[in-house]
Design brief:
The protein is built from ten helices and six strands, in the order E-H-H-H-H-H-E-H-E-H-E-H-E-H-E-H. By secondary structure, the chain is of the alpha/beta class. It folds into two domains: 141 residues, Rossmann fold, CATH 3.40.50.1000; 59 residues, DNA polymerase, domain 1. It has a six-stranded parallel sheet, sandwiched between helices. Helix 8 links the parallel strand 4 and strand 5. Helix 1 packs across helix 2 and helix 2 crosses helix 3. The radius of gyration is 17 Å and the shape is globular.
């Protein structure tokens, strides 16, 4: 029986909603306000931290621990009227209902944000739970420790039965050597990159088709 671990932002909903760009802008603004940076310096710092540590928050924790407060970070960056961006998505619900096995949200965000998103999309009841950054001891994807903790929380499925669905290639390529099957949500994917995952789909609604391909059904 497969066990699904699905990313949240950029995966269960697309950038076309405008929500992720809005969150991204709030992250940059957080660095401006909390660290006293210009917008240009904050953007450059974000790029460097994401490259080095996987997320902006990890950069804060490692390089500015005196100013790093994960709870404050999430409260600020997610302080948005989510209902202005998201609405119930019956097609997403049908997609998820058609997948066998338990489903978990596996996100580098916090559970409060994930819960709000799932409620607005109308799919919260379809998930066994939310594995957020606090559940993985502040270790984000693509850190190996985050995947190991997520597997434990998801009941230690046998190798090959855990399926990670994510919009970030780096998160998927880090998970694959640990036994995950990987599905990349990407509207465009170079052939060389596509070979680094088990399946590529243009949007979440194509997930049942990808599952059939993975299982050979």
């Amino acid at each position: 029986m497969p066990v699904w671990l699905l990313d949240l932002d950029g995966t269960l909903y697309t950038d076309h909603t405008g929500l992720w760009p809005a969150i991204s802008a709030r992250i940059t603004r957080y660095l401006e306000v909390r660290l006293g940076l210009s917008a240009e310096v904050a953007q450059a710092l974000r790029r460097r931290w994401v490259e080095a540590y996987g997320t902006t928050l990890q950069g804060l924790l490692h390089e500015r621990p005196d100013r790093a407060d994960p709870h404050d970070y999430f409260a600020f960056t997610h302080a948005l009227p989510l209902e202005a961006y998201l609405a119930p998505d019956p097609r997403l619900r049908r997609t998820l209902e058609g997948l066998p096995g338990p489903k978990w949200v596996f996100t580098n965000a916090d559970a409060a944000h994930a819960g709000r998103v799932l409620t607005l999309l109308g799919v919260g009841d379809l998930f066994r739970g939310i594995i957020d950054l606090f559940a993985t001891d502040l270790h984000p994807k693509p850190w190996t420790s985050a995947y190991r903790k997520a597997l434990t929380l998801a009941g230690n499925p046998p190798p090959g039965e855990a399926i990670l669905v994510d919009d970030r290639l780096s998160n998927l390529t880090a998970a694959r050597p640990l036994g995950f099957r990987t599905v990349w949500v990407a509207r465009e994917a170079a052939a060389s990159d596509a070979r680094r995952v088990d399946a590529v789909i243009p949007e979440i609604y194509a997930l049942p088709r990808a599952f059939l391909a993975l299982t050979g059904a």
